[in-house]
Amino acid sequence: MRTGIRAFCPVFFAFLAAAAPQLCAAQVQTGQPAPATDPDAQFRAFVEGFRATAVQAGIDPQVYDASMSGIARDPRVEELNLQQPEFVKPIWDYLEGAVSPARITKGQAMLAAYAPMLANIEQRFGVQKEILVAIWGIESDYGTETGSFNMFEALATLGYAGPRSDFGRRELIDALRMEQQEHFAPAEMTSSWAGAFGQTQFVPSAFLKYAVDGDGDGRRDLWHSPADALASAANLLVQSGWERNAPWGYEVVLPSNFPYEYADLDRPTTINYWRSLGVRAAAGFDLPVSDARASIYLPAGARGPAFMVFDNFRTVLKYNNAGSYALAVCTLADRIKGLPPIMASWPRDETPLSRPEQLALQTGLQDLGFDPGPLDGILGSKGRAALRGWQKSHGLIPDGFATESVLQQIEREVAERGTAAATTGLKQ
Asked: Which of 89, 216, 251, 259 is most exposed, with the fewest beta carbons within 10 Å of its own?
């Protein structure tokens, strides 16, 4: 049973229900689809009304009609939109699936089978072939799972209503533009539920910006050509800041007196600084003498593994902005190279927070006088700093790791302050 701050969630949903008519009226005033009596009718109204928006954006009316005729709202897309594994699973569970023994073995086989093609891409773009193979493995299991949803149906379902409607509408326009430019058959444009497609799972806007012809046939086919897909992934990384011949990072061991409030992806400093604090590589070697920029990343707090990460790790985040994803890509690349697994153990007795629980944590921190930034259920840099401040004020290790036990402590403190304030009020 959920108690404390989270007990107020039903009030929030009651507010949404009461506000729905006004929200629909606002949609009409802003040119969005008129309110409908059921989601399917509302979806059909969106598809009909969005045609003018697409045409105004340069989409041929015939292209729109060919792509959008016959599509329907997909409840499965709506369901999956609320659950993303990078943000819901504990990182150790996510990594076990993403960097499994089978995926490592298959990655090594693909590295050998496509050696000339990968060497060519590595030479052309400067992205290590193991990183590209790791992205290939995590995104589509090396081209075997490229998505089975109708791309236009999936993006329209995201776009007509819901928390990612702006994203869905933008990507829907770009999917239509992609079809128009590349002359793809609409029925063959399959994708994931979120509109990502092909062997390296680009969204349409990324395709238009970064896709390249990797096999020299004059086409950019991310569904059927591994060379096109991997060269496009390499181009995305390079255009996002990838540094040729530079590492992503490595596991480290922190000294007992380490200042955990400085351990954050958003707080890079020099390797020399970390070296001066006594940080050492987990493999046993001393850190190099260098002014290169590096951050200490603690994906599971002070009790879990620690990593020193460089700019190339941050570049992988441009592919998918989840630290767990970037760590999976980079560690899978290392395992494909034959390097050992992560050495430190994970705090499996801890329970990381879901997004609603992170929202409750943000609210609690705010109630206690710590500024967590926007109350959005995503504990970003400011939220982690607020949590560290609370942890430090209570004599705890300020690692900014949000867990169920931390939330329970904060809820108790909020409740105790509320009780004390009420008692003071009665006495007055």
From this structure: 216
